[in-house]
Structures are given as C-alpha cells and as structure tokens.
C-alpha cells in the first residue's frame, strides 16, 4: 500500500470502488484527482483545494495553470511546476458521495473498524524521479511493500502511468500521472461517537474522541473525523480551521463556509484565540503558574517529532496545577502559540510528561526522557533512527499530524497461512477466534456497538499482503492520551466541551477556573 508524502509537488489520490478483483484494474476512471489533504499542524501553511482534469476533451486553457491536460494520444512535455501552498488559508475537504460509499464501518471490542476496500492512489511524478525507472522509484520511495509486489502490480496493470500499462523499465517524465490500485486496510479507532458541541450555518464544533485523526492521512481515511461526520451526520465538505493530534481529544472547529473558515483561521493566526487544555502529567507539578518559553524545532516532519532547540520557533505555554491524583497531577495548559506538539514538548522539557504520551514520555529521548532538553547526547539523525526502530517494535510512531513512515504496520500482527482459498465462514471463524478484548473503555465512555462484523461485506485480494495477516486489536491504552482541548475563545465566540473521566471532573470544580 502506497503512502503519499507531503512534499513540494501535490500528492493526489482518488477512490474507485468499482474494481475487477481478478486483475485489480479499475473498471472506471474518475475524471478528477484531488490533493491529498495532509498537513503538519495548523501553524503550517495549508494547501489550496485543486481539481485536475484528466480528459482530453477539455481545453487546456480552461484548466488551472498548475497542471496541464493529459492528452490520450500525446503527452505534453511540460516543465515541472510547483504548487502555490500559501492560499487559501483553510483546507476544504471536497469529497464526493461516491467516496463516502467506498466502504462501511463495523464495530467490535470497543473499536470502529472499516471493511477493506479497493482504492486508487495517484501522484504526479516528482522532480527527483524524472528519468528513473518506475520500478526503482516505487521500490525506494514506497517501502511498505517489496519490489516484487510493485513488479507484479506493473505487470498486471494495477500500477499505471497516465492510466496506461507500461513496462517495469519505463523511465518517468515530467507530469506523468502515476496510479496504483491497492486493497486498502485501515487502522481501527475508538467507536466513541463524535459529539456535536455547536452547529449553525457557518461552523460545526465537535468533541473529538482520542485515537481518531482529523482528516485522511497515512493509513486513515474513513476512520477520520471528516469522514465519520460526513457518513454519520451528513456534514460534508467541511473546512479544517485548526487541528488536534490523533491521540488528543477535545474541541475541534470546522467551517461550513469559506468566509467563516477564513475568518476563524485568521483569528488563530493572529493569536486572537485563547485556548485551554487539560492534561494529566507524571509527578507533583509545581505550585503557581509555570511559564515555558523554550523554542520548539521540528526534528522530522515525515514522522512528526519535535524537540526544544535554540534553532526552533518561538513559542510560549503557561501551566497551572489544579489537582493531584495519586502520583500524577491534573494541569491546566494555555498555549499562547500554536506550534506542533507544543504542550507535549514543553511538558517533556519541564520534566512532567503526560503520563501516557507514547512519544514524549519515552526513554528514546535519553535517560531523562528529554527533561531540560537532555536527549542523551544524540544527534537529530540518531534520534530519528532510534524512533523508527522503536516504532517497528511498539507501533506508535508516524500517525500524528499526518506524519507517514515508509515502513512497518501500525499494529502488531501475526502472519497466518494463505487465506486465498478460505470460505467466508472460515475467515469469520479466524477473525472471531483471534480478536482481542478491549477491557478499559470506561475512560472514554464507549457504548456497545450496533453494527457487528458481517463477512458478506468483506473483500479479498489474493495479491494483498494484508489480507493474509490477522491483526490484533489495539489495547485501550493505545487509543487514548491524557490531553484534552477543553475551551476555545475567540472574537465574540466561545466554546467548550465535556471533560473526559480521567480529568476527575467529579472532584474538581472546573467552573471556578
């Protein structure tokens, strides 16, 4: 399965659920491809919404200047063009109804799961690929699968150039459109419902559960907030105004109109929005208001990791202990800037990391786990390499902020014998036998599922590696982090959410804060 990257050229993707399973070749080709909606943080400059025609019937003069029409008889040898990533200032997730119908959900063990489905990843050739053989590029750039699998995809016509079959030694040209049909398996998330905090004709405010990404990224598509809202509440084409990490719960605002989205996004950029978070950290947090002004640097956008560094961007967070719970503290956090992972990194630096932060409360940052900026004398490259190695064993890295790792599966698994000749009954029996129970779901208030697994709805691809793997369900502890976006207050507006159980809301009078 190909993971797209957020780089200078747009990574485009489209879905096509009508697929010939024997050859895994699309029976229909969509007329448009869309920019993969990925971002590093709401401080990053969002990409604009763009649609590209791939039909020869349309006149090139009617198309956006950034992409030229691909003719069916002759390809235009155009210069490499960089997309303008500075306008507009919001993200519009323009998804059609057909995309929402690619697959459906089922629920078990406290998890929302997605039936595997066929999907077409598409991307334009990047400058560094030009002149290289297509097989060499995929084997190097998309290491989730071995070169032999890409070789087979090219030979069977699943991996094409400009929707035409090519040999494996084909050399890529500028503006070549690469398409690869994959059998997509998504990662389970919490089945906790997304509560609507406020909704009017301009905005939608929700309480995001932990474990659910905001929008499609990495191995998540239908198991994202925007898809769930579209499928469950018929709230489509929402504009993202800000973001939360996948494991962070809490207040999330979407624009329903471009005007309102620009207005609120501008307030955030101008730091006119007061944000309050609640978290639970290790140890007894100091008395009084603690201010952290340490600059934060992104160590790697690709895997989504930051640390305090003098070379980083200026940022400021204030913290105040509001209660103690055993050997941990409940802390009120007020980020005055909006850097990537700001609260988590500042708490790590202060020596009071979030108790269940799988990234910043880890010995990979050295014996002190990053306290005071001490990462054990490692260079940034060493830190990144160690993080990737640990990810292979513990499977928690690379899903935050749209970060993508080119290796490993995000959930530990057991490889079984080939299931190609198994009946649906046998598959269901194995599925039931090997599933693990999620015990601790009371922290997030999960209800019993209403749509259990239905073997009739599943699909199988004999060439799909993941179809031959039985996945263990993630543990409940892997689906939650004790960090919650509680309140947002802007110009003439204010919203807040209910607090999660781990915040001890029955013992703390939050109304006095």
Produce a short descriptive summary.
Residues 1-14, 51-60 have a biased composition (Polar residues). With 513 residues, the protein is an alpha+beta fold.
Describe this structure in words.
The chain has 513 residues and is an alpha+beta fold. The protein folds into 2 domains: 12-184, Structural Genomics Hypothetical 15.5 Kd Protein In mrcA-pckA Intergenic Region, Chain A; 189-408 and 479-512, Pseudouridine synthase, CATH 3.30.2350.10. The protein is 15% helix and 24% strand. It has 8 helices and 26 strands. Strands 6, 13, 14, 15, 16, 17, 18, 21, 22, 25 and 26 form an 11-stranded mixed β-sheet that branches. It has a 6-stranded antiparallel β-sheet with strand order 5-4-1-9-11-10. The chain has a 3-stranded antiparallel β-sheet with strand order 7-8-12, with no helix packed on it. The longest helix is centred in the last third of the chain and has 15 residues, at 380-394. The radius of gyration is 23 Å and the shape is globular. The model is unreliable at 1-93 and 396-448 (pLDDT under 50). Belongs to the pseudouridine synthase RluA family. Keywords: Isomerase, mRNA processing, Phosphoprotein, RNA-binding. It comes from Drosophila madeirensis (Fruit fly). This is Pseudouridylate synthase RPUSD2. Residues 202-348 form the Pseudouridine synthase RsuA/RluA-like domain.
